[in-house]
Amino acid sequence: ESGGLAVKGHLPERDGIYIGLLLTEMLVKGGVPLSERVNALYEEFGMHVCYRDDMHTEEWRKQAMMARCRAGEIGEVCGVAVADRDMRDGVKHLLEDGSWVMVRPSGTEPVLRIYSEAADAGRAQALVEELVAMVHSLEKG
């Protein structure tokens, strides 16, 4: 995946070294350790842990799983009901407990990318693993 940060007025590109230097400057001038800043964010917004699996699978399974997701056939994941779906980039299943799991097909290879976010690592991994199991259980037809 592509990602990174850019700073307006610096370069029209993402620049990790510059971002690192800005973070260091912020910590030195602010006098608050990074760990305290991170803990304050967790207190305000809660912990969010991400997990991802690039599932190599047959093209028919990739297409069948995406069709199932788009049709709204997945009503719950890991025992938690799907509250809503966001289909802007793949299909993101927003769960009632605030976690989510998303399925997105690769456009260049027979890969299904499955992402999740939850309050802890075990839960995030379990969400992805349940969707991987759903893909494996699909039958050609």
Total strands: 6
Shape: globular
CATH T-level topology of the largest domain = TATA-Binding Protein
Q: What's the CATH class label of the largest domain?
A: Alpha Beta
**Which residue ranges are poorly predicted, with pLDDT under 50 across at least 5 consecutive positions?**
none
Helical content stands at 25-40%
Gyration radius over CA:
19 Å
Q: What's the SSE pattern?
A: HHEHEEEEEH
How far from one another are the termini?
Answer: 32 Å
Would you identify the CATH architecture of the largest domain?
A: 2-Layer Sandwich
- Largest sheet entry: 6 strands, antiparallel
Overall average residue pLDDT: 92
CATH superfamily of the largest domain: Alpha-D-phosphohexomutase, C-terminal domain
Query: What's the structural domain tally?
Result: 2
User: Reading side by side through the largest sheet, how are the strands ordered?
Assistant: 1-6-5-4-3-2
Class by SSE composition: alpha+beta
- Number of helix segments? 4
The proportion of residues in beta strands is: 25-35%
Describe the protein.
The structure is a single chain. The chain is of the alpha+beta class and 141 residues long. It folds into 2 domains: 1-46, no CATH class; 49-137, Alpha-D-phosphohexomutase, C-terminal domain (TATA-Binding Protein, 2-Layer Sandwich). It is 40% helix and 26% strand. The chain has a 6-stranded antiparallel β-sheet, with helices on one face. The mean pLDDT is 92.
SSE blueprint and pairings:
Blueprint: H1 16-30, H2 34-45, E1 49-56, H3 59-70, E2 76-77, E3 80-86, E4 91-95, E5 100-105, E6 111-118, H4 121-137
Antiparallel strand pairs: 1-6, 2-3, 3-4, 4-5, 5-6
